[in-house]
Amino acid sequence: MPTASDLYGPDALRALEALAADACGDAFEPMRRAGSAAYEVAARSWPRAQRIVVICGPGNNGGDGYVFALRALEQGRDALVVRMPAHQPRPGLASRACGEFLAAGGLVQEFNGTLPVADLLVDALFGIGFSRVPGEDTAPLIDAINSHGAPVLALDVPSGVVAATGAVPGAAVEAGCTVEFIVAKAGLRTGAARDHVGRLELASLSLDPTLLENVESAAERLVPADLARWLRPRRRDSHKGRHGRVLLVGGDHGHGGAIILCAEAALRSGAGLVEVLTREAHVSGALARVPEAMVRATPDAAQPVAAALSGHADVIAIGPGLGQDCWGRSLFEEVRASGTAMVLDADALNLLALSPCRLPSGTVLTPHPGEAGRLLGCTVADVQADRFASAAALVERYGAVVVLKGAGTIIAAPGRTPRLIDAGNPGMAVGGMGDLLTGAVAAMLGQGLEPFDAASAAALLHSAAGDAAAAIDGQRGLLPTDLTPWLRRLSNPEFHPWT
Ligand SMILES: NC(=O)C1=CN([C@@H]2O[C@H](COP(=O)(O)OP(=O)(O)OC[C@H]3O[C@@H](n4cnc5c(N)ncnc54)[C@H](O)[C@@H]3O)[C@@H](O)[C@H]2O)[C@H](O)CC1
Ligand SMILES: [K+]
User: Where does (6S)-NADPHX bind (predicted)?
Assistant: First the structure.
């Protein structure tokens, strides 16, 4: 089973390093270009930073740091290198870079628990060579960087972040900007990494792009470019039935809002007809809130539910507010047996975890990390330790398309390269946001997108709507209902911010 580390692990990047050295005809040249490119980003971003402290590790990331420091000296800045006593530069490239810095009059100071006064800190402690296996305790140094107060520029990877997966096993640098070298790293765009990278800048090191044709970069996984293509076709057929009949099932007692949010999102994402099957008690509230939806009450448990599922839905989404009591269980079993394209969310996923089975390939699962853990029989920490691997494992086990929610949503499907949503913000971590996504996925399926594209389009639409709403009134206090007008706006190509 492939994992992200196969793509961006040390072996892959070692190969990339060799490619870079061959392309430059000199093994030191990529390091010289990396340190210099990072300096250019610093000079542009912090033009008045005079006192620059570069924290160098023992490896080639540290080597980039020495090159950066030399460049800063040459440009008249007060550049100082600080390193752990144990972090003598490794023989070879890093040692050469350190030697050139010292030969130019550069100073190296051992870390003594605090960092000197600085206008800018440069994190060259660890790059792609960082592994989650705890080495000597670098946490005090990382904490000193994070508490210093000066802006932080990270070289290649914020130290303490696992580049291949986005996992943050311990202390990690919180950068204001991260300059990635050669390829955009998918791991830096998902999971906890998104809280550490700051603004991402890519330094290609002026390598010939054909050199990288076999190295898949995160850019190829980023959905926006695809979504614009999918959503570009304008609505043509004027018959509402031709834009998807979507049936939404859920809303047990006390959870009626979830299925109503789902219905609103499905309509705002372009579904033609939306039908809601919920508890009798929620019918009037649902109609009051979303009069465009046809809302029906499920029969009480005494009657077979199958009748309630009759009709000609193109897709059934089940789970928002479903609960796991006999009402929810019987609805779930009926839907699972219906043979209709399905979107399973929330309690439908929890019920699936209790009775796992292979699903029709057109099914879309939309778990958050907790639901993913239950579906895989592991902890949330295990899921987050390698989100790409976790998404792949869910696809492997259930045979469905998987939308692994959380920072940097990942969409995976059988036989497909996983996709990554490089959008969304922490303000979206509130109840009800997932219900919107479920409605959007159902709407995209109903409009004829194939499941992997439908899930990708909906996930981007959802995250972009969250970013658009947060850009106006902030992330704190962001509510699902703030997103629904944006779902409509951004599902129309003329409003796409990414084209
Ligand atoms: N890929 C390229 O084409 C280029 C890469 N460059 C830079 O090189 C680094 C990768 O350098 P590497 O020496 O492989 O590893 P790091 O410098 O990231 O790590 C140094 C060293 O740290 C030790 N270590 C690992 N994990 C831990 C831990 N948990 N605790 C303590 N110590 C740890 C381990 O011994 C590592 O070897 C890449 O990121 C780029 O910045 C080139 O300069 C540009 C081209
Ligand atoms: K770094």
Answer: 60-64, 127-133, 156, 258, 321, 368, 435
Residues 207, 305, single domain; the answer is no
* C-alpha radius of gyration, the chain, whole number: 25
Domain extent for 338: 224-495
* 380-420: pLDDT as tens digits: 999 999 998 999 999 999 999 999 999 999 999 998 888 88
Residue 428: its H or E element = none
Annotated binding-site residues for AMP read 405-409, 434
pLDDT at 6: 40
- Cα of 334 from ligand 2 centre, angstroms: 52
Ligand 1 atom 29: the closest Cα is on which residue? 134
What pLDDT is recorded for position 5? 36
Answer yes or no: do 74 and 156 share one domain.
Answer: yes
- Boundary (domain end) residue, out of 221, 251, 271: 221
> From the CB of 20, is ligand 1 less than 6 Å away?
yes
CB-count burial class (<10 Å; 0-12, 13-18, 19+) for 217 = middle
pLDDT at residue 122 is higher than 90:
yes
Asked if residue 54 has pLDDT above 70, the reply is: yes
| Residue 53 DSSP symbol | E
The rounded distance, in Å, linking the Cα atoms of 387 and 381 is 10
Q: 149: phi > 0 → left, psi -120 to 50 → alpha, else beta; which? A: left
Is 17 in the same domain as 136?
A: yes
Give the atom of ligand 1 at the shortest distance from the alpha carbon of 19: 3
Residue 212 has pLDDT above 80, yes or no: no
d(CA 444, CA 455): 8
Q: Which atom of ligand 1 is nearest to the CA of 160?
A: 29
Residue burial 242-264, b: 16+ Cβ < 10 Å; e: rest:
ebbbbbbbbbbeebbbbbbbbbb
Total domain count for the chain? 2
CATH of the domain at 322: 3.40.1190.20
pTM for this entry: 0.88
Assess whether the C-beta atom of 56 lies below 6 angstroms from ligand 1. no
Mean pLDDT over the full length of the chain = 89
Characterize the bridge pairing of strands 364-365 and 315-318: unpaired
- In this predicted structure, what is the pLDDT of residue 3? 36
Judged by DSSP in three states, 111 sits in coil
Q: Are residues 240 and 190 in the same domain?
A: no
**132 to each of 148, 163, 245, 246, 496, how far by Cα in Å?**
24, 10, 47, 44, 39
241 pLDDT band (50/70/90 cuts)? low
d(C-alpha 114, C-alpha 358), whole Å: 55
Work out whether the CA dihedral 303, 304, 308, 311 comes out positive or negative.
negative
CA distance 104 to 75: 12
